[in-house]
Amino acid sequence: MAASVYRLPDEPLPSGLSRYAVDPLWPMLTLMLAGNGFGLAWFAFNGFALGSPTRGRELALLALNLAGAIALLWLLGALSQAGWLPRQYMEYALLSVITLKLATGYALYMMQQRCFELWEYYGGMARNGLPLLILATLFARRLFDLQWPALLRMVLE
Amino acid sequence: MSRHALALARRHYGHGQVDQAIDVLLRLLGEDPDLAEAHALLAFCLLKRKRLHVAALEAARALELEPDSVYSHLAAALVAIARRRLSEAETHLNAARELDPAAAVIEDGFARLHLAWGHDERALAHARRACELEPDDLDYRALLASLEFRRGDRGTAEALAREVLELDPEHLEALCVLGHCELAAGRVDDARQHAAWAVQLDPMDEQALTLLAAVKARRSPLLGLWWRFQSYLTAGSRTRTVVLLLGLFLLYQIGMIALSQNGLQRWTLPLSLLWLGFCAYTWIAPGLFWRSVKKELQQVRLRPGF
To answer: Which segments cross the bilayer (chain B) (predicted)?
Structure first.
């Protein structure tokens, strides 16, 4: 019988999906280049693949990203309609949505990066995420050219 | 068995083989999870690897199992210093001092606490007291050397570091202090050898990497500039890093919007190119930096008869 080994709570948990795990840099770049929706989906999957111990907090951040972006867009729309946000300031105000998306993206990246380093240390072999990043970036442009509800498009783009 | 394993882990830790020490401790704690000393030593190891969250948990577990252990309080204090919870660290150090007023290791802890607070003179006084209490311990002398260097007394710092290295040529902190002294004296090649040797001993040690970076910064202004930028970005918490990076991005975005809204479209292309250049530089420079570090490490050979 193998001797039991003490497990530290920040170590990744074994997962059947671990052969699909990638360096979280790839989901982060996808979020920047192919859009928020693709990046978040990949972050969520990668969290499960890595067996990340902070998976719960990662999913909460993901929800904050989506719900926060919807709330901000709705608020800016309401302010604009009420005439409180002049048209020339709208571009500046929309930067808040980009900031929220990037800030939560960075937070997700940092949470997974710590887990990824440990996962690699314990012998995990990461996949190369570059082909999927290129594919997502090319596909995203075509996808976002289709007819989408404006709010959904702004959240996922 | 546990005594032997603990001694082995301590030896690994003492020689800078932190990962090996962690492996031994995890196996030991798998068999006996109630060994306070093993939890405390594990906290020290995790601290070295910057896994602060679990280091704090391990120190807390050690204290829970043995509330009257100097070693457990010391582990909790050093973890608290690393997390910038300095008052908490002081409480643990005071508790440890009450348990053993003449322990040099507690003076060492106070020296590190005052260093974190920026009270250099008080840190120096505690380091001297630690050396008086245990004159044969090389770690305290190396810390004293580092503090003497910090306050600008390079002669004393170099002499102390050389003393330590004569007795233990692989003492990481002394190697780094000597490297910094040599760099300050303009002996860049000697500094490079010491830096590379320190990195070979522990490739993840912060002091060793800082010295190596300082040497590289002296030799290559371009990579040095990246290193300084990187050091500034990562000097505090991760949140601060993210805020700084996002701030830079937002400034760029605001600049682009302001230029186009004020009819200065011809400046948007140069600004975009500047931003792209900055992104490319911060993307490529780390790779170049670490490649040159690896090359450097391959070149370093100890002088025969050292």
So the answer is: 242-261, 273-293
d(CA A76, CA A97): 10
Contacts of B270 (CB under 8 A, 6+ apart): none
Q: Does any CB of chain B come closer than 8 Å to the CB of residue A59?
A: no
Q: Which of B19-28, B217-226, B264-273 is least confident?
A: B217-226
Query: ipTM greater than 0.85, yes or no?
Result: no
Whether the Cβ atoms of residue A107 and residue A61 lie closer than 8 Å to each other: yes
Alpha helix (H) residue ranges in chain B: 2-14, 18-31, 36-48, 52-65, 70-82, 86-99, 104-117, 120-133, 138-150, 154-167, 172-184, 188-201, 206-219, 221-233, 238-261, 268-299
Nearest CA in chain A to B24: A5
**Cβ contacts of B170 within 8 Å, gap of 6 or more:** B15, B16, B201
Alpha-carbon gap, residue B48 to B35, rounded angstroms? 20
B186: phi then psi, degrees, rounded to nearest 5: 85, 5
Contact A92 B246 (CB under 8 A): no
Can you tell me which residue has the tokens 């699909």? A20
Strand partners of residue A127: A22
Q: Could you report the per-residue pLDDT of B21-32, keeping only the tens digit for each?
A: 999 999 999 998
**Partner-chain residue, chosen from B30, B54, B242, that has the shortest CB–CB distance to A4:** B30
The tally of CA atoms less than 13 A away on the side-chain side of residue A56 is 1
